[in-house]
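Section 3.1 - Work completed
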Amino acid sequence: MTRPHDFGFDDTAQILKDTARRLLQDHCAPEALHRLAAASSEPARATECVWDEALWRKMIDLGWTAVAVPERYGGFGMGLVAIAGLAEELGRAAVPSPLVATLCATYVAAACDSEAARRLLRRIAAGLSVSLATTDRRGSWAPEDTDVAVDEAGALRGTAWFVQDARKVGALIVKAKSPRGVGLYLVEVDAAGLTIVPDAILDLTRDQAHVELRGVADVQVLAEPGDGARALVAAEPAILTIVAADMVGAAEWQLQTTAEYARTRVQFERPIGFFQAVKHPLVDMMVQIDGARSLVYDAACAFDHEPEAAEVCARMAKAAASDAASYCSGRSVQLHGGIGFTWECFIHLWFKRQKHNEVLYGDGAHQRARLADRLIGRIGETA
């Protein structure tokens, strides 16, 4: 299939991206974000969940939870290319919100073939926030791996790990196994028998938790046992692309902020950007970001127009974005000099978000290993 010009990034996608940038510049500027997320530098502080709920309501009013929902279920039905542009702006602002988690969950729900999944999509379009509770204790996202099981009475028992923004969302998509296979279940966060246990994590712009389910019976079946793995596999390229886009946006902020510092910080009677030891890393940051961004939009385009290539393209994008995030984080701190590793310098917020995103759903090494398994296997099959 022929892919469209500019990855299919049209005027509507540009309007969404521009609107997001303006809103987040006005309501989530670095100074405001630092006051909100880094109010306390005490190492022994309690695990917090801080976010601007008024800003979240503005996002809902603008229809951002509905952008990935098909039109027939009350959404805008925008392509993943447009969603990637939105996610890039979320990363650029490092905004604390459940939107990334909700967008990822939307693609899982859309891959499920059930009336309950269609009802969930309508609720998401109306503003419901949802997160995925689909990872086991080892951090495995593999479709068959889960520590939650369906008991004889049909209730869920076990623990879902590494649940993103668990204390911000209204519902969870839980992966659970039964003798018939893996299924997906919608659980409201206030359901009887469900306990959210916060995790202490590096990223100050998110919260993470493990969710204990002790006989949770009030569930809706989104994907029947045996069909859950298929839905997760179908949604995974979109999830990897969204997280990669977030990293690209954050890396762009790191580059621009560090470049501005290099233009204004004077040493030896010259701006430090005059020196090659500063210039060259900044150029390397730019090159890595541009390469990762191209792969992100290529992956989004493949998901929209060439599904058979979506997984390979998404893993390439996540690998490149993870590598760029790691490099840009290190250089942004280094090139800020002595102030770069202090709490008062804003860049630590983006550094920590990048390190979290880097390993979320697999870092660069993991993605390349999965690519090798798939592509070498394919070569072997055709040899």
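Second construct:
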Amino acid sequence: MKKSSKIVLSVLVAAAVLFGVYRMVNKAPSASLDSNAQMAEIIESSGCMACHAANPELPFYANFPVAGKLVKEDVQLAYRSFDMVPMVEALKKGEKVSEVDLAKVEKVILDGTMPMAKYYLIHWGASLSDTEKQMALAWVKNQREAFYPNLLADAKWSNEAIRPIQDSVAVDMRKVILGNLLFHDVRLSSDNTVSCSSCHGLNTGGVDNKQYSEGVGGQFGGVNAPSVYNAHYNFVQFWDGRAATLADQAAGPPLNPVEMANTSFDEICEKLNADADFAKAFKEVYPDGFNQANITDAIQEFERTLLTPNSRFDKYLKGDDSAMTAEELAGYDLFKKYNCATCHVGENMGGQSYELLGIKHDYFADRGTELTVEDNGRFKETNNERDRHRFKVPGLRNVALTAPYFHDGTQATLDEAVKAMAKYEVGVDLSEQETKQLVAFLQTLTGEYQGKLLTNDNELQK
């Protein structure tokens, strides 16, 4: 046998052996297991927790001079982007997994970006086989069907991470009427000049279109006002998530020294009780009358009605293929391509997780202004260093109406906000065409309130 033939034969034998070993260590979970058990096995075998956890067990080569630096950078980025521990814990208990986590898992599997090639080339068996990919995607779909049913969408969009907004939710209309009055009542402020609607105007997209809102005595706060529209869908309230419910949120501004500046709700109750007709009407619904719990409960019930269904995008999801233009659909494709749809999920297209502002680049260093307390984000509440500069993801419904953008209100236009998000969260510099298409898509998210389309001209369309 010629020497060259022996070499070829040796290579083929070696390849066959390696392939056999690979098949042995990269074995898909049993088809007899339920989808949760399959997914748990896939996560373990693919080494996800080697990077996506607070205290991962680093491999031996993490101590090498060059390779170790790269490994630690990858681990840091992975953990900053996605802490998988809560997901794994929920998975093992058979509980609901965050829909943001579901979207993140689905995206990296569809893209084939995880596990990273430089990881599975060293850790044999970590790469996902086609069978494992299908099992993981089926698990995501099963989770959505069980916990996040997309009942309003057309069948072809039933597994989308985004769902159309409901026309209404069940409420107590007696409380809604009272809550509406309180929402617009300046007596909730110490000097009778500021109401909830002062900062959350229903004719201005649920915000005030200012960088920082103005409170009593002309004082300005230090954070941009989020929209009150569709806040019912948020998993927590405020940028830093300090309020668990809409009622908790409603209790904050009246006692904030900059916003409404009351020292207690007793001041508010005293003024409201002086209004005999209002006090009588209120006691018919709340027999114990005005107090903090009842006032905030009524406001919460009203705010639950602030839904904006029937956007053109929702009509498209419901099956109307003519509802969006080719440019807008191209923007939606980019929205998914550039990972926007992994955090901006659900009915409100956001409000379901805390995410770091500046995953790929240092947003605050580039901003060039002094850091504020509000820039700390979720860290203000937890004192966990991982939560520094991490904020509740804003919902994108009616986003074309709610400028300026970001928690600090620094992005004056939607174009600026889109480019900044792509740069700092994804590491992508958008072309002008991509920016235009993404903005066109975002403009389709404007919905209706009380049957009328919200508009940019500070009025509801007649």
